[in-house]
Amino acid sequence: MSAFGDHDHGELVGISFDDPFRAKEYVVAVTGLASREKLRLRDVVTIVKDHDDRVTVHETIDPSPKQAAVSGAVWASLFGLVLGGPVGWVAGAALGAGTGALTAKSVDLGISDEWVEWFRASVQPGTHTVVLLVDDVDRNA
User: Fold this and answer.
1) Antiparallel, parallel or unpaired: β 55-59 and 40-49
2) Closest CA to 67 of 97, 90, 39, 40
3) Contacts for 2-7 with beta carbons within 8 Å, 24 or more apart?
4) Is beta strand 40-49 parallel, antiparallel or unpaired with respect to 2-6?
5) Domain extents for the chain?
6) Which of 67-81, 94-108, 123-137 shows the highest mean pLDDT?
7) pTM of the model
8) Which of 29, 62, 26 lies closest to 43 in space, CA to CA?
9) DSSP character for 52?
10) Pair 119, 12: CB distance under 8 Å
């Protein structure tokens, strides 16, 4: 287990498991503590590195560019439709998709991309690593 102290006013904790089910159980247990207000869970990142060194990263907080582009396109196209009719709808969709994708790439919520990359490079093959950003931890929980 690794703990890295203060990270944007929270505690950054990483723990690796050989078993994917144990990693999921750990996330469920921590989520349970958060629901009982024993800690504040700010972000969870799971990193899976297979035996061929292929890495899969799942971030719970940071939106993907695709998700942000779709959301931006929907909202901007609705706004464009109200203001400019069909032409406004098309222009709004294009502008919203581009803005959403760029925003997702530039905004970093939760665990910083630098730490995610550090864990990605450091974890051992064949492991499932859970990285948490928590604060307001009740140490007696």
Assistant:
1) antiparallel
2) 97
3) 4/115, 7/111, 7/112, 7/115, 7/133
4) unpaired
5) 1-61+110-141, 63-107
6) 123-137
7) 0.63
8) 62
9) T
10) no
